[in-house]
Predict the structure of Small ribosomal subunit protein uS14.
Amino acid sequence: MAKLSSVNKNERRKQLVKKYAGKYAKLKAIANDESLDETERLIARLKLAEIPRNGNPTRIRNRCELTGRPRGYYRKFRLARVMLRDLANKGLIPGVTKSSW
């Protein structure tokens, strides 16, 4: 089980990203649009820098839904490898079976 403070910090980051998603996308599009004037693009970059650091989507860490473990994460199941194996062995994940060859 991961530290509860780390899990909570990640949840706060998710909320901030959701809050600033529209503004972030609009400014990012302006900053990357090469058809615009350089000064407009620079202003957009400066406004991007004013957005809180945790409002950036890259700051979100993928964590297991059950344990909060950050490593060995499977996106398809939103679980860490340990919990994926445990639940799969118990037959709680539909369509997943133990392989043998």
